[in-house]
Amino acid sequence: MNNPQSKSIILTSGGTGGHIFPALAVAEELKKSNPDIRIVFVGGLYGPEANLVSKAGFEFIGLPVKGVLGRGLSGVKALFALFFQSLAFKKELKKINPSVIAGFGGYASIPSLLAGVFSGVPVIIHEQNSVPGLSNRLMSRLAKRVCLSLPQAKVYFNEKKCVVTGNPVRSDISGLFHIDRSNPQRRLLVLGGSQGARAINLALVKALPDLIATEVKIVHQAGASGLEETKQACLKLGLPLSELEESGKYHLTAFIDNMGSYYENSDLVLSRAGATSIAELCAAALPSVLVPFPFATHDHQTANAKALSDNNAAILLTQKELEANDFDLAKFVCVLLNNPARLAVMSDSVRLCAKPDAARILVDELLKLA
């Protein structure tokens, strides 16, 4: 690529933060290395990507993509809809004139990637998980390059196209890689992913009275779909949410935009084990208790969590264990927070699992094709 400053690049993803945040991390790195490059995001009009991309200050084009590919007639209809949307997007593609299109997964990425293929624009995809999603499996056949977070995913693709880059994380998170975590202050961050996690939300609420009594400060991202149910569960226990918020003891929110700040001011994380969450925890050197979503494809979240727990970098807690009647989450968390030495070991170990340069490596691969 002789003059990257004169180029345009399309990044496309959608559906969940796990697809969107790596794309945003790459956009940040692209803008830093090539300030004059035009970066255009393409995603679903009705997903969280529109809001997240706009807040990050990047140009966004929304497509009226609905639903996820299913089976039977609904799946066939969805495929035809995505195909016709890709044909319709060719007109917009001609205006943008991108030198390369990068897809980060999610069904909303398919139309612009297909439009690129039809128009002769090089296509590159990034797969965050050890077991790829359907959209990336489909598009990998047409992509020039397949970038992977994990080497285990190579078996699902043409290995000659594959490059292991790691999973890009945003600069406010990767900047925490060398943070000193030797002096924990009993701060718990609870995450269920961008869509929330009902089992984690309800278990946390049940443990709240005991956690607050032992002076643990908690930030709880319940997800948009779980926020109201979590509030009602708190009220049923008689918890004074406004008072707890004002005192800094418990902050309940649907979504967190500035994750870097919250990671910086946390000592332990209770979280699902999605690939992007894992990458962020590694980059931020944060000890964690990981509760894999038990119904994930090929149970890949358990594989993600086990990769860390086997290296003393996290604790794997199954959802069955979390929901057991005799399980005391408050006690479990307090035992960890009362053991700074163990937290320090976990922090050092999880740091070894990080790939803080993933965004830069992926940008290099992008520019090779542009």
Automatic annotation (TrEMBL):
Membrane-protein topology: Peripheral membrane protein
GO cellular component: plasma membrane
Reaction catalysed by this enzyme: di-trans,octa-cis-undecaprenyl diphospho-N-acetyl-alpha-D-muramoyl-L-alanyl-D-glutamyl-meso-2,6-diaminopimeloyl-D-alanyl-D-alanine + UDP-N-acetyl-alpha-D-glucosamine = di-trans,octa-cis-undecaprenyl diphospho-[N-acetyl-alpha-D-glucosaminyl-(1->4)]-N-acetyl-alpha-D-muramoyl-L-alanyl-D-glutamyl-meso-2,6-diaminopimeloyl-D-alanyl-D-alanine + UDP + H(+)
Biological processes, Gene Ontology terms: carbohydrate metabolic process; cell division; cell wall organization; peptidoglycan biosynthetic process; regulation of cell shape
Tree of life domain: Bacteria
Swiss-Prot/TrEMBL keywords: Cell cycle, Cell division, Cell membrane, Cell shape, Cell wall biogenesis/degradation, Glycosyltransferase, Membrane, Peptidoglycan synthesis, Transferase
Stretches of the chain forming a coiled coil according to its record: none
A GO term for molecular function: undecaprenyldiphospho-muramoylpentapeptide beta-N-acetylglucosaminyltransferase activity
First-level EC class: transferase
Pathway listed: Cell wall biogenesis; peptidoglycan biosynthesis
Membrane-spanning parts: none
Main location: membrane
Cellular compartment(s): Cell membrane
Enzyme Commission numbers on file: 2.4.1.227
Domain Glycosyltransferase family 28 N-terminal as annotated: residue spans: 9-146
Keyword DNA damage found: no
Residue ranges constituting the Glycosyl transferase family 28 C-terminal domain according to the UniProt record: 188-358
Protein family according to the UniProt entry: Belongs to the glycosyltransferase 28 family. MurG subfamily.
HAMAP family (alphabetical): MurG (MF_00033)
PANTHER family linked: GLYCOSYLTRANSFERASE, UDP-N-ACETYLGLUCOSAMINE--N-ACETYLMURAMYL-(PENTAPEPTIDE) PYROPHOSPHORYL-UNDECAPRENOL N-ACETYLGLUCOSAMINE TRANSFERASE 1
Name of protein: UDP-N-acetylglucosamine--N-acetylmuramyl-(pentapeptide) pyrophosphoryl-undecaprenol N-acetylglucosamine transferase
Protein encoded by which gene: murG
